[in-house]
Design a protein that fits this description.
Shape: globular
Strand content: 5-15%
Strand order of the largest sheet: 2-1-3-4-5
Number of strands: 14
Largest sheet: 5 strands, parallel
Structural class: alpha/beta
Low-confidence stretches: 123-139, 334-358
Mean pLDDT: 82
CATH superfamily of the largest domain: P-loop containing nucleotide triphosphate hydrolases
Radius of gyration: 27 Å
CATH class of the largest domain: Alpha Beta
Distance between the termini: 68 Å
Number of helices: 20
Length: 497
Protein backbone atom coordinates (compact mmCIF):
# COMPACT_ATOMS: atom_id res chain seq x y z
CA UNK A 1 0.00 0.00 0.00
CA UNK A 2 1.39 3.40 -1.02
CA UNK A 3 1.12 6.48 1.19
CA UNK A 4 0.04 9.76 -0.41
CA UNK A 5 0.14 13.08 1.44
CA UNK A 6 -2.36 15.69 0.18
CA UNK A 7 -1.71 19.31 1.22
CA UNK A 8 -4.51 21.73 0.36
CA UNK A 9 -6.49 24.24 2.40
CA UNK A 10 -9.73 23.40 0.58
CA UNK A 11 -11.51 20.59 2.52
CA UNK A 12 -13.46 19.50 -0.56
CA UNK A 13 -10.24 18.95 -2.53
CA UNK A 14 -8.74 16.89 0.29
CA UNK A 15 -11.95 14.87 0.62
CA UNK A 16 -12.00 14.18 -3.12
CA UNK A 17 -8.42 12.95 -3.13
CA UNK A 18 -9.13 10.79 -0.07
CA UNK A 19 -12.13 9.12 -1.69
CA UNK A 20 -10.44 8.48 -5.01
CA UNK A 21 -7.07 7.30 -3.72
CA UNK A 22 -8.55 5.17 -0.94
CA UNK A 23 -10.67 3.35 -3.51
CA UNK A 24 -7.47 2.65 -5.46
CA UNK A 25 -5.89 1.08 -2.38
CA UNK A 26 -3.66 3.94 -1.20
CA UNK A 27 -3.26 5.26 2.32
CA UNK A 28 -4.04 9.00 2.34
CA UNK A 29 -3.04 11.71 4.82
CA UNK A 30 -4.26 15.30 4.48
CA UNK A 31 -2.91 18.63 5.71
CA UNK A 32 -4.26 22.16 5.41
CA UNK A 33 -0.88 23.94 5.35
CA UNK A 34 2.69 23.35 4.23
CA UNK A 35 3.89 23.45 7.83
CA UNK A 36 1.42 20.74 8.88
CA UNK A 37 2.37 18.69 5.82
CA UNK A 38 6.06 18.88 6.72
CA UNK A 39 5.34 17.63 10.22
CA UNK A 40 3.32 14.68 8.93
CA UNK A 41 5.96 13.85 6.31
CA UNK A 42 8.75 13.84 8.90
CA UNK A 43 6.73 11.54 11.15
CA UNK A 44 6.06 9.09 8.33
CA UNK A 45 7.56 9.67 4.89
CA UNK A 46 4.98 9.47 2.09
CA UNK A 47 5.54 7.83 -1.29
CA UNK A 48 4.09 10.85 -3.11
CA UNK A 49 2.91 14.35 -2.22
CA UNK A 50 0.12 16.42 -3.73
CA UNK A 51 0.87 20.06 -2.94
CA UNK A 52 -1.26 23.15 -3.57
CA UNK A 53 0.56 26.36 -4.48
CA UNK A 54 -1.59 28.85 -2.56
CA UNK A 55 -1.62 27.89 1.09
CA UNK A 56 -1.95 29.80 4.36
CA UNK A 57 1.48 30.66 5.69
CA UNK A 58 4.24 29.14 3.55
CA UNK A 59 3.30 28.76 -0.11
CA UNK A 60 3.66 25.45 -1.89
CA UNK A 61 6.57 26.43 -4.14
CA UNK A 62 8.65 27.50 -1.16
CA UNK A 63 7.85 24.23 0.59
CA UNK A 64 9.17 22.00 -2.20
CA UNK A 65 12.81 22.55 -1.26
CA UNK A 66 12.07 21.94 2.44
CA UNK A 67 10.48 18.60 1.60
CA UNK A 68 13.58 17.71 -0.41
CA UNK A 69 15.88 18.59 2.49
CA UNK A 70 13.86 16.83 5.18
CA UNK A 71 12.54 13.64 3.53
CA UNK A 72 14.54 13.24 0.31
CA UNK A 73 13.36 13.07 -3.27
CA UNK A 74 9.71 12.11 -2.99
CA UNK A 75 7.65 12.84 -6.15
CA UNK A 76 5.72 16.08 -5.58
CA UNK A 77 2.68 16.92 -7.72
CA UNK A 78 1.90 20.63 -7.71
CA UNK A 79 -1.75 21.72 -8.06
CA UNK A 80 -3.19 25.19 -8.41
CA UNK A 81 -6.23 27.09 -9.60
CA UNK A 82 -3.97 29.82 -11.00
CA UNK A 83 -1.79 28.07 -13.55
CA UNK A 84 0.69 30.21 -15.41
CA UNK A 85 4.08 29.90 -17.04
CA UNK A 86 6.02 31.51 -14.18
CA UNK A 87 4.48 29.12 -11.67
CA UNK A 88 5.26 26.14 -13.87
CA UNK A 89 8.86 27.13 -14.46
CA UNK A 90 9.44 27.78 -10.76
CA UNK A 91 7.88 24.46 -9.80
CA UNK A 92 10.05 22.66 -12.35
CA UNK A 93 13.17 24.40 -11.14
CA UNK A 94 12.34 23.31 -7.59
CA UNK A 95 12.04 19.71 -8.79
CA UNK A 96 8.29 19.05 -8.88
CA UNK A 97 7.25 15.81 -10.59
CA UNK A 98 4.19 17.18 -12.39
CA UNK A 99 1.70 20.00 -12.41
CA UNK A 100 -2.11 20.01 -12.48
CA UNK A 101 -4.43 22.97 -12.88
CA UNK A 102 -7.80 23.00 -11.14
CA UNK A 103 -10.37 21.84 -12.06
CA UNK A 104 -8.93 18.48 -13.10
CA UNK A 105 -10.50 15.19 -14.11
CA UNK A 106 -10.36 12.10 -11.92
CA UNK A 107 -8.54 10.27 -14.71
CA UNK A 108 -5.81 12.92 -14.64
CA UNK A 109 -5.33 12.48 -10.90
CA UNK A 110 -5.15 8.69 -11.13
CA UNK A 111 -2.71 8.86 -14.03
CA UNK A 112 -0.27 11.36 -12.56
CA UNK A 113 -0.24 9.78 -9.09
CA UNK A 114 0.23 6.35 -10.63
CA UNK A 115 3.21 7.63 -12.63
CA UNK A 116 4.63 9.38 -9.59
CA UNK A 117 4.43 6.24 -7.46
CA UNK A 118 5.97 4.07 -10.18
CA UNK A 119 8.76 6.58 -10.63
CA UNK A 120 9.41 6.75 -6.89
CA UNK A 121 9.67 2.97 -6.67
CA UNK A 122 11.98 2.70 -9.69
CA UNK A 123 14.29 5.58 -8.73
CA UNK A 124 14.34 5.78 -4.92
CA UNK A 125 16.35 8.59 -3.40
CA UNK A 126 17.23 10.29 -6.71
CA UNK A 127 16.07 13.59 -8.19
CA UNK A 128 12.82 13.32 -10.08
CA UNK A 129 13.50 12.61 -13.70
CA UNK A 130 9.81 13.11 -14.33
CA UNK A 131 10.19 16.70 -13.24
CA UNK A 132 11.28 17.23 -16.80
CA UNK A 133 7.73 16.30 -17.81
CA UNK A 134 6.43 19.26 -15.83
CA UNK A 135 6.10 22.69 -17.35
CA UNK A 136 2.92 24.63 -17.09
CA UNK A 137 2.40 28.16 -18.15
CA UNK A 138 1.56 31.66 -17.60
CA UNK A 139 3.31 34.65 -18.90
CA UNK A 140 2.03 38.17 -19.35
CA UNK A 141 1.98 37.58 -23.10
CA UNK A 142 0.36 34.14 -22.88
CA UNK A 143 -3.09 33.80 -21.34
CA UNK A 144 -5.25 30.72 -20.90
CA UNK A 145 -6.86 28.47 -18.31
CA UNK A 146 -8.01 25.75 -20.71
CA UNK A 147 -6.48 22.29 -20.59
CA UNK A 148 -5.18 22.83 -24.12
CA UNK A 149 -3.20 25.89 -23.06
CA UNK A 150 -2.03 24.25 -19.85
CA UNK A 151 -0.47 21.54 -22.03
CA UNK A 152 1.22 24.23 -24.09
CA UNK A 153 2.52 25.90 -20.93
CA UNK A 154 4.02 22.60 -19.78
CA UNK A 155 5.72 22.15 -23.13
CA UNK A 156 7.14 25.68 -23.02
CA UNK A 157 8.68 25.10 -19.62
CA UNK A 158 10.13 21.76 -20.71
CA UNK A 159 11.53 23.21 -23.95
CA UNK A 160 13.12 26.04 -21.97
CA UNK A 161 15.17 23.51 -19.98
CA UNK A 162 16.77 22.10 -23.13
CA UNK A 163 18.81 23.57 -25.96
CA UNK A 164 17.39 21.48 -28.80
CA UNK A 165 15.60 22.80 -31.88
CA UNK A 166 11.88 23.41 -31.45
CA UNK A 167 9.16 23.32 -34.10
CA UNK A 168 5.96 25.24 -33.29
CA UNK A 169 2.92 24.49 -35.43
CA UNK A 170 -0.51 26.08 -35.48
CA UNK A 171 -2.85 28.22 -37.51
CA UNK A 172 -2.05 31.81 -38.31
CA UNK A 173 -2.66 34.09 -35.34
CA UNK A 174 -2.33 31.45 -32.60
CA UNK A 175 0.73 33.10 -31.03
CA UNK A 176 3.67 31.10 -32.31
CA UNK A 177 6.15 33.96 -31.90
CA UNK A 178 4.95 34.58 -28.33
CA UNK A 179 5.63 30.94 -27.51
CA UNK A 180 9.10 31.16 -29.07
CA UNK A 181 9.85 34.30 -27.04
CA UNK A 182 8.66 32.61 -23.85
CA UNK A 183 10.93 29.61 -24.46
CA UNK A 184 13.91 31.93 -25.04
CA UNK A 185 13.10 34.13 -22.03
CA UNK A 186 13.04 31.15 -19.66
CA UNK A 187 16.02 29.34 -21.18
CA UNK A 188 19.72 29.46 -20.39
CA UNK A 189 20.11 31.73 -23.44
CA UNK A 190 17.91 34.47 -21.97
CA UNK A 191 20.85 36.89 -21.75
CA UNK A 192 21.52 36.48 -25.47
CA UNK A 193 19.59 38.01 -28.38
CA UNK A 194 16.21 36.81 -29.62
CA UNK A 195 16.13 37.35 -33.39
CA UNK A 196 12.75 36.85 -35.10
CA UNK A 197 12.76 36.28 -38.86
CA UNK A 198 9.63 36.10 -41.02
CA UNK A 199 10.89 33.97 -43.89
CA UNK A 200 7.75 34.52 -45.97
CA UNK A 201 8.53 38.25 -46.06
CA UNK A 202 12.02 37.75 -47.56
CA UNK A 203 12.18 37.64 -51.35
CA UNK A 204 14.14 34.89 -53.10
CA UNK A 205 16.94 37.22 -54.21
CA UNK A 206 17.75 38.52 -50.70
CA UNK A 207 16.91 35.66 -48.33
CA UNK A 208 20.37 34.04 -48.49
CA UNK A 209 22.16 37.30 -47.76
CA UNK A 210 19.70 38.20 -44.98
CA UNK A 211 20.08 34.86 -43.23
CA UNK A 212 23.77 34.12 -43.71
CA UNK A 213 25.26 37.56 -44.37
CA UNK A 214 27.67 38.57 -47.15
CA UNK A 215 31.16 39.94 -47.66
CA UNK A 216 32.11 43.06 -49.52
CA UNK A 217 31.94 42.60 -53.30
CA UNK A 218 29.82 39.44 -53.11
CA UNK A 219 27.29 41.01 -55.49
CA UNK A 220 26.39 44.36 -56.97
CA UNK A 221 25.63 46.75 -54.13
CA UNK A 222 27.54 44.78 -51.48
CA UNK A 223 29.78 47.69 -50.48
CA UNK A 224 30.73 46.27 -47.10
CA UNK A 225 30.64 43.11 -45.01
CA UNK A 226 27.31 42.45 -43.37
CA UNK A 227 26.36 39.93 -40.70
CA UNK A 228 23.35 37.75 -41.39
CA UNK A 229 20.46 37.21 -39.00
CA UNK A 230 21.80 33.84 -37.88
CA UNK A 231 25.11 35.41 -36.88
CA UNK A 232 23.28 38.22 -35.09
CA UNK A 233 21.65 35.49 -32.97
CA UNK A 234 25.06 34.24 -31.79
CA UNK A 235 24.70 33.27 -28.12
CA UNK A 236 20.92 33.46 -28.31
CA UNK A 237 17.91 32.20 -30.23
CA UNK A 238 16.78 32.72 -33.82
CA UNK A 239 13.06 32.33 -34.54
CA UNK A 240 12.36 31.24 -38.13
CA UNK A 241 8.70 31.88 -38.81
CA UNK A 242 6.95 30.29 -41.80
CA UNK A 243 9.74 27.76 -42.30
CA UNK A 244 7.55 25.90 -44.81
CA UNK A 245 7.95 28.75 -47.31
CA UNK A 246 11.73 28.38 -47.64
CA UNK A 247 13.13 27.39 -51.04
CA UNK A 248 15.01 24.04 -51.33
CA UNK A 249 18.39 25.73 -51.88
CA UNK A 250 18.06 27.68 -48.62
CA UNK A 251 16.89 24.52 -46.83
CA UNK A 252 20.24 22.91 -47.65
CA UNK A 253 22.18 25.79 -46.12
CA UNK A 254 19.94 25.85 -43.05
CA UNK A 255 20.50 22.14 -42.55
CA UNK A 256 24.27 22.67 -42.65
CA UNK A 257 24.02 25.57 -40.19
CA UNK A 258 22.00 23.47 -37.72
CA UNK A 259 24.17 20.36 -38.01
CA UNK A 260 27.56 22.06 -37.87
CA UNK A 261 26.72 25.31 -36.09
CA UNK A 262 28.50 27.21 -38.79
CA UNK A 263 27.45 29.50 -41.65
CA UNK A 264 28.96 30.51 -44.97
CA UNK A 265 28.27 34.18 -45.83
CA UNK A 266 27.58 34.93 -49.49
CA UNK A 267 30.88 35.47 -51.29
CA UNK A 268 33.01 34.02 -48.49
CA UNK A 269 34.91 30.74 -48.73
CA UNK A 270 35.50 30.42 -45.00
CA UNK A 271 32.78 29.07 -42.69
CA UNK A 272 32.09 30.92 -39.44
CA UNK A 273 31.31 29.13 -36.19
CA UNK A 274 28.30 30.49 -34.35
CA UNK A 275 26.38 29.42 -31.26
CA UNK A 276 22.63 29.72 -31.68
CA UNK A 277 19.42 27.86 -31.03
CA UNK A 278 16.74 27.56 -33.71
CA UNK A 279 13.03 27.72 -33.00
CA UNK A 280 10.99 27.34 -36.19
CA UNK A 281 7.28 27.76 -36.82
CA UNK A 282 4.77 27.10 -39.57
CA UNK A 283 1.04 27.04 -40.22
CA UNK A 284 1.55 24.38 -42.89
CA UNK A 285 1.80 20.60 -42.60
CA UNK A 286 5.48 19.87 -43.12
CA UNK A 287 4.85 16.11 -43.59
CA UNK A 288 2.56 16.99 -46.49
CA UNK A 289 5.23 19.28 -47.94
CA UNK A 290 7.76 16.46 -47.58
CA UNK A 291 5.43 14.07 -49.39
CA UNK A 292 5.07 16.55 -52.25
CA UNK A 293 8.85 17.08 -52.47
CA UNK A 294 8.77 20.71 -51.30
CA UNK A 295 10.49 20.25 -47.94
CA UNK A 296 13.54 18.23 -46.96
CA UNK A 297 12.84 15.34 -44.61
CA UNK A 298 16.28 15.59 -42.97
CA UNK A 299 15.71 19.27 -42.22
CA UNK A 300 12.31 18.47 -40.73
CA UNK A 301 13.85 15.99 -38.30
CA UNK A 302 16.55 18.49 -37.33
CA UNK A 303 13.98 21.20 -36.66
CA UNK A 304 11.39 19.05 -34.87
CA UNK A 305 13.43 17.53 -32.05
CA UNK A 306 10.83 19.10 -29.77
CA UNK A 307 7.38 19.93 -31.17
CA UNK A 308 4.67 22.20 -29.80
CA UNK A 309 1.25 22.39 -31.47
CA UNK A 310 -0.82 25.47 -30.64
CA UNK A 311 -4.60 25.02 -30.50
CA UNK A 312 -6.85 27.33 -32.53
CA UNK A 313 -8.89 29.75 -30.45
CA UNK A 314 -12.17 28.04 -31.40
CA UNK A 315 -10.94 24.93 -29.57
CA UNK A 316 -10.53 26.82 -26.28
CA UNK A 317 -13.54 29.15 -25.99
CA UNK A 318 -13.21 29.27 -22.20
CA UNK A 319 -10.06 31.35 -22.70
CA UNK A 320 -11.78 34.04 -24.79
CA UNK A 321 -13.12 36.15 -21.87
CA UNK A 322 -9.67 36.06 -20.21
CA UNK A 323 -7.96 37.09 -23.44
CA UNK A 324 -10.50 39.82 -24.16
CA UNK A 325 -10.13 41.39 -20.73
CA UNK A 326 -6.34 41.00 -20.93
CA UNK A 327 -6.18 42.83 -24.26
CA UNK A 328 -8.60 45.47 -23.03
CA UNK A 329 -6.32 46.09 -20.07
CA UNK A 330 -3.30 46.42 -22.34
CA UNK A 331 -5.10 48.76 -24.70
CA UNK A 332 -6.25 50.91 -21.80
CA UNK A 333 -2.71 51.26 -20.55
CA UNK A 334 -3.50 49.12 -17.52
CA UNK A 335 -1.63 46.07 -16.31
CA UNK A 336 -4.83 44.06 -16.60
CA UNK A 337 -8.46 44.00 -15.53
CA UNK A 338 -8.85 46.11 -12.44
CA UNK A 339 -5.37 47.61 -12.76
CA UNK A 340 -4.47 51.26 -12.52
CA UNK A 341 -5.32 53.43 -15.48
CA UNK A 342 -2.69 54.64 -17.91
CA UNK A 343 -2.66 57.43 -20.44
CA UNK A 344 -2.19 55.79 -23.80
CA UNK A 345 -1.14 52.39 -25.03
CA UNK A 346 1.96 51.80 -27.10
CA UNK A 347 -0.31 51.38 -30.10
CA UNK A 348 -1.73 54.87 -29.62
CA UNK A 349 -5.18 53.69 -28.56
CA UNK A 350 -6.79 56.24 -26.20
CA UNK A 351 -7.15 55.14 -22.61
CA UNK A 352 -10.69 54.21 -21.61
CA UNK A 353 -10.74 57.07 -19.15
CA UNK A 354 -10.66 59.55 -22.04
CA UNK A 355 -14.08 58.43 -23.22
CA UNK A 356 -15.65 57.19 -20.03
CA UNK A 357 -14.25 59.30 -17.22
CA UNK A 358 -12.00 57.47 -14.81
CA UNK A 359 -13.97 54.20 -14.91
CA UNK A 360 -12.04 51.42 -16.70
CA UNK A 361 -13.87 49.84 -19.60
CA UNK A 362 -15.21 46.32 -19.36
CA UNK A 363 -17.17 43.93 -21.55
CA UNK A 364 -20.83 43.28 -20.84
CA UNK A 365 -21.96 39.69 -20.36
CA UNK A 366 -23.74 39.87 -23.70
CA UNK A 367 -20.54 41.02 -25.43
CA UNK A 368 -18.53 38.19 -23.86
CA UNK A 369 -21.15 35.66 -24.98
CA UNK A 370 -20.92 37.04 -28.50
CA UNK A 371 -17.13 36.81 -28.44
CA UNK A 372 -17.27 33.21 -27.25
CA UNK A 373 -19.75 32.27 -29.98
CA UNK A 374 -17.56 33.45 -32.85
CA UNK A 375 -15.34 31.02 -34.79
CA UNK A 376 -12.23 33.28 -34.82
CA UNK A 377 -10.66 32.11 -38.05
CA UNK A 378 -7.87 34.64 -37.42
CA UNK A 379 -7.44 33.25 -33.90
CA UNK A 380 -5.92 35.39 -31.11
CA UNK A 381 -4.74 38.06 -33.57
CA UNK A 382 -8.31 38.58 -34.81
CA UNK A 383 -9.63 38.69 -31.24
CA UNK A 384 -7.15 41.39 -30.27
CA UNK A 385 -8.15 43.46 -33.29
CA UNK A 386 -11.82 43.08 -32.34
CA UNK A 387 -11.08 44.23 -28.78
CA UNK A 388 -9.17 47.29 -30.05
CA UNK A 389 -12.06 48.14 -32.39
CA UNK A 390 -14.61 47.83 -29.58
CA UNK A 391 -12.51 49.86 -27.14
CA UNK A 392 -12.27 52.75 -29.59
CA UNK A 393 -15.89 52.59 -30.78
CA UNK A 394 -17.62 52.25 -27.41
CA UNK A 395 -18.43 55.59 -25.75
CA UNK A 396 -19.48 54.02 -22.44
CA UNK A 397 -17.61 52.17 -19.70
CA UNK A 398 -19.39 48.93 -20.57
CA UNK A 399 -18.70 47.55 -24.03
CA UNK A 400 -21.76 45.89 -25.55
CA UNK A 401 -22.16 43.61 -28.58
CA UNK A 402 -23.03 46.58 -30.78
CA UNK A 403 -19.46 47.87 -30.48
CA UNK A 404 -17.92 44.66 -31.80
CA UNK A 405 -16.82 44.55 -35.45
CA UNK A 406 -18.41 42.19 -37.93
CA UNK A 407 -16.74 38.77 -37.78
CA UNK A 408 -14.27 37.98 -40.54
CA UNK A 409 -15.40 35.67 -43.29
CA UNK A 410 -13.71 32.31 -43.41
CA UNK A 411 -10.76 32.26 -45.76
CA UNK A 412 -9.96 29.30 -47.99
CA UNK A 413 -7.22 28.36 -45.51
CA UNK A 414 -9.68 28.59 -42.61
CA UNK A 415 -12.20 26.43 -44.47
CA UNK A 416 -9.57 23.77 -45.08
CA UNK A 417 -8.44 23.96 -41.46
CA UNK A 418 -12.01 23.51 -40.15
CA UNK A 419 -12.50 20.52 -42.43
CA UNK A 420 -9.28 18.97 -41.14
CA UNK A 421 -10.41 19.54 -37.55
CA UNK A 422 -13.74 17.83 -38.29
CA UNK A 423 -12.04 14.84 -39.88
CA UNK A 424 -9.59 14.43 -37.00
CA UNK A 425 -12.38 14.79 -34.43
CA UNK A 426 -14.50 12.16 -36.18
CA UNK A 427 -11.58 9.73 -36.29
CA UNK A 428 -10.74 10.27 -32.61
CA UNK A 429 -14.39 9.84 -31.62
CA UNK A 430 -14.68 6.59 -33.55
CA UNK A 431 -11.58 5.08 -31.93
CA UNK A 432 -12.71 6.07 -28.42
CA UNK A 433 -16.31 4.93 -28.99
CA UNK A 434 -15.20 1.59 -30.43
CA UNK A 435 -13.08 0.87 -27.35
CA UNK A 436 -15.94 1.62 -24.95
CA UNK A 437 -18.80 0.14 -26.97
CA UNK A 438 -20.80 -2.52 -25.19
CA UNK A 439 -22.66 -5.38 -26.84
CA UNK A 440 -26.13 -4.38 -27.96
CA UNK A 441 -25.37 -0.67 -28.24
CA UNK A 442 -26.62 1.14 -31.36
CA UNK A 443 -24.35 1.18 -34.38
CA UNK A 444 -21.61 3.79 -34.15
CA UNK A 445 -22.58 5.44 -37.42
CA UNK A 446 -26.04 6.23 -36.08
CA UNK A 447 -24.64 7.42 -32.75
CA UNK A 448 -22.25 9.76 -34.53
CA UNK A 449 -25.03 11.25 -36.65
CA UNK A 450 -27.11 11.81 -33.52
CA UNK A 451 -24.14 13.66 -32.06
CA UNK A 452 -23.39 15.98 -34.98
CA UNK A 453 -26.80 16.55 -36.56
CA UNK A 454 -28.39 18.71 -33.83
CA UNK A 455 -25.68 21.44 -33.79
CA UNK A 456 -25.65 21.40 -37.60
CA UNK A 457 -29.41 21.95 -37.75
CA UNK A 458 -29.29 24.66 -35.10
CA UNK A 459 -26.47 26.46 -36.91
CA UNK A 460 -28.40 26.36 -40.21
CA UNK A 461 -31.48 27.81 -38.56
CA UNK A 462 -29.43 30.56 -36.96
CA UNK A 463 -27.76 31.46 -40.25
CA UNK A 464 -31.15 31.63 -41.95
CA UNK A 465 -32.75 33.71 -39.16
CA UNK A 466 -35.21 30.94 -38.34
CA UNK A 467 -36.51 30.50 -41.89
CA UNK A 468 -37.10 26.74 -42.28
CA UNK A 469 -37.33 26.85 -46.07
CA UNK A 470 -34.03 28.71 -46.36
CA UNK A 471 -32.35 26.40 -43.84
CA UNK A 472 -33.58 23.34 -45.75
CA UNK A 473 -32.18 24.75 -49.00
CA UNK A 474 -28.86 25.49 -47.30
CA UNK A 475 -28.62 21.91 -46.04
CA UNK A 476 -29.88 20.42 -49.30
CA UNK A 477 -32.81 18.58 -47.72
CA UNK A 478 -36.60 18.86 -47.99
CA UNK A 479 -38.35 21.16 -45.56
CA UNK A 480 -40.46 18.24 -44.27
CA UNK A 481 -37.26 16.32 -43.54
CA UNK A 482 -35.93 19.29 -41.60
CA UNK A 483 -39.15 19.51 -39.57
CA UNK A 484 -38.94 15.78 -38.80
CA UNK A 485 -35.36 16.06 -37.61
CA UNK A 486 -36.15 19.06 -35.41
CA UNK A 487 -38.94 17.09 -33.73
CA UNK A 488 -36.70 14.02 -33.38
CA UNK A 489 -33.95 15.92 -31.56
CA UNK A 490 -36.31 18.11 -29.57
CA UNK A 491 -35.02 21.30 -31.17
CA UNK A 492 -37.48 24.15 -30.76
CA UNK A 493 -38.82 25.19 -34.13
CA UNK A 494 -38.56 28.92 -34.73
CA UNK A 495 -41.49 30.72 -36.27
CA UNK A 496 -41.35 30.61 -40.05
CA UNK A 497 -41.04 33.85 -41.95
Amino acid sequence: MSRVLVIDDEPTICWGFQQLLSEEGHEVQVAASAEEGLRLAEQRAPDAIVLDVRLPGMDGLSAIELFRLRIGHVPIIVITAFGNLDTAVKALEQGAFDYLTKPFELEQISDVIGRALRHGRSRPGTPSQAAEELCSAGDESLVGKSQAMQRVFKQIALAARTDVSVLITGESGTGKELVAEAIHRHSSRRAGPFVPVCLAALSANVIESELFGHVRGAFTGADSDRKGLLELADGGTVFLDEIGDVAPAIQVKLLRAIERHEIMPVGDARPRRIDFRIIAATHQSLPELIASGRFREDLFYRLSVFQIELPPLRDRPEDIPLLAEHFLGQISGRAGPGGSSGQRSAAGVPDSSESAGTVPKRFSEAALRELMARPWYGNVRELRNAVEHAAVLSRTAEIGPESLPEPLAMSARGQKSCEQVCRRAAARWLVAAAEKRADGEPALYRRFLELVEPPLLEAALKLCAGNLAAAARLLGIHRATLRHKLRRYGIERPAER
